[in-house]
Structures are given as structure tokens and as C-alpha cells.
Design goal:
globular, 20% strand, four-stranded mixed β-sheet, alpha+beta
């Protein structure tokens, strides 16, 4: 592990994702309609993650095929409360659902390509962890 001088500045969190869109207003409205994300008129702010969720920052090799079929150089992940429902909704909204749902001890994952061609990973926390979040609300 690399040690850092105590006086050195360091990153303490992930503060946002900013990206280009040929029609930002259309894309905001699409995410609001099909995933209930924001009001569809302006950027979306998430004040906190669900308990036991985390944010990942992970560079990939430039020749990875993990982002396919998108040709974009990035992919983003959204946390959802119902993976199957969310994938069904985005499909109804015209998104291309890609790959097979994967199940791991830390949750379920599915993917789609949005109207701008961005590949999006959806993450549903394990059932017990979702229940804990619901009880806290």
C-alpha cells in the first residue's frame, strides 16, 4: 500500500458524472419517465447512497469489450430498487437491454444502452440489504 504524507490532499468521494449529449433535455426527460430519475428538466442530485452501497471509479484497458455494444468510452452504474422492473421499463422506453442478468453475493446486475448510446449498468442490492434501507426510511 502506498503511504501519503498527512498534509497531502486526497480524493474523499465521487462528486458527479458530467457528459455530453446531443439532446440533454430529451435524455433528462427519458430517464425521468422510464426510471423515475429526477424531474426531467435539470441535473439529478443523489444526496446519499443506500446503506452498504458504494461508488466505484475504475479505469479499464482501452481495448475492453465490457462497454459493448456501446461505442462510448465510459459506462455508468445506477442503483435500482427492482432490477427486473427497471429493465422492463427501459425496454418499453426504447432502450436496448443487453446481456444476461448476473447475480452475485453483493447484488444483481443488468445492462442497457440508453437513447444516446451510453451503456448503463443497473445494480440491485441483495434483498436483505434493500429491506434494511426500506426500514430506515
Amino acid at each position: 500500500m502506498t503511504s501519503h504524507p498527512k498534509s497531502a490532499a486526497r480524493v474523499i468521494g465521487f462528486g458527479g458524472l458530467f457528459f455530453k449529449s446531443p439532446d440533454p433535455e430529451r435524455l433528462l426527460a427519458w430517464y425521468a419517465k422510464w426510471l423515475g430519475m429526477g424531474d426531467g428538466k435539470s441535473s439529478v442530485e443523489f444526496e446519499a447512497l443506500p446503506a452498504r452501497a458504494f461508488t466505484v471509479w475504475s479505469p479499464f484497458l482501452s481495448n475492453t469489450d465490457y462497454f459493448q455494444p456501446s461505442t462510448r468510452e465510459f459506462m455508468f452504474k445506477l442503483i435500482v430498487d427492482d432490477l427486473d422492473g427497471a429493465l422492463g421499463q427501459v425496454h418499453l422506453g426504447g432502450a436496448q437491454v443487453v446481456g444476461e442478468v448476473e447475480e452475485h453475493e453483493y447484488g444483481r446486475f443488468g445492462w442497457f444502452v440508453d437513447p444516446d448510446g451510453n451503456k448503463v449498468e443497473l445494480w440491485e442490492l441483495p434483498l436483505g440489504e434493500r429491506d434494511a434501507d426500506d426500514a430506515a426510511e
